[in-house]
From TrEMBL:
Cross-referenced Pfam families: WD40
Span list, region Disordered: 306-346
Name listed for the protein in its UniProt record: POC1 centriolar protein homolog A
Residues in WD repeats: 9-50, 51-82, 93-134, 135-176, 177-218, 218-259, 260-292
Gene responsible for this protein: Poc1a
InterPro entries: WD40/YVTN_repeat-like_dom_sf, WD40_PAC1, WD40_repeat_CS, WD40_repeat_dom_sf, WD40_rpt, WDR55/POC1
Function noted in UniProt: May play an important role in centriole assembly and/or stability and ciliogenesis.
GO cellular component, one term: centriole
Family statement drawn from the similarity comment of this UniProt entry: Belongs to the WD repeat POC1 family.
Coiled-coil stretches: none
UniProt keyword annotations, A-Z: Coiled coil, Repeat, WD repeat
Claim: Coiled coil is one of the keywords in the record: yes
Phylogenetic classification of the source organism: Eukaryota, Metazoa, Chordata, Craniata, Vertebrata
Species for this entry: Chloropsis cyanopogon
Amino acid sequence: EDPSLERHFKGHRDAVTSVDFSRAKKQLVSGSMDSCLMIWSMKPQMRAYRFLGHKDAVLCVQFSPSGHLVASGSRDKTVRLWIPSVKGESTVFKAHTATVRSVHFSSDGQSLVTASDDKTVKVWTVHRQKFLFSLNQHINWVRCARFSPDGRLIVSSSDDKTVKLWDKTSRECIHSFCEHGGFVNHVDFHPSGNCIAAGGTDSTVKLWDVRMNRLLQHYQGNSAVNSLSFHPSGNYLVTASSDSTLKILDLLEGRLLYTLHGHQGPATCVAFSRDGDLFASGGSDEQVMVWKTNFDADYGDAVKPQKYGSSVDGTHGTGSEMDCGIHHKKTKTQDSGRTQEQPEEETSLANTLENIMGQLDVLTQTVSILEQRLTLTEDKLKECLETQQKIIQNKTN
């Protein structure tokens, strides 16, 4: 079967900028130019939550690996961490001196990397929301930053037309990829961690091997690529473009499989679910769409070929796909890394540990919210005392 549109959500009042699924696919979060986040339930007839807090456009959102927190970045220069429940409580930390365009959790949920128009990439601890360090070699706005699956590397993309690879421990830039001819809007790691993909205003998607620092594949499209997402198998890539289309690329064969039409106007963001069964997209038409992947159950088998020949204009792949681990395709999934042969007891223990970590996320975030409220209360008390003292002084004078 071809990928199919399952449902669409309406509620935003301006362009949708970012989408992400929770780990169990129970919820979908979206950010928008309308300054709101919305949490959509994947259950029919369940109401959406609208989260208010940012004072300007929300440009990026992401669920934590446990699904118990949501991070967002905004044009108001702040990052917020939210508990995705009815109350929609959040803590705010001043992250950058300009618009925050990208937020991304490490796979263990302990760190957050952010990218900004202040030309920096910053790394933070999640639980204490403490700033750790900055990466400062970009010479223009930084559009996107991502941790590698093992957390040892960071990749960033910028309006300076470069993609930079950083070592998290040494905090040094270990390579700059300069093949893009325009602003680089989005970048991400392949699930294997061995290669990266980037898309930009030059209408191309490029894949590089990060061990050999060489170009593996190149796809030429017809309009700017705004966002991309790897399928958890690592064999497919979906992109969102300014020509309103979503494209699914077969990385095994280096070709375009599908061109999907749904959005009216530019498609701004796209993301696969953790298991790859669904993907979501957002656009300037204010809509969030959820698509069923309909790939074969065995992701090692090729998906059906592209049926609409006219949509592959100028698209081609080059280089060797085998070098970046794309051929490793059957048993592992990105969210857990467990193989099907592992004992049920081990799976159960891992699930229990994940649940405990998720509860810890909520507890520490609740403590942070209480701390911020306490600080505000203390500030108000100080103001009241100062006012009272002035009144007393005026009376005695």
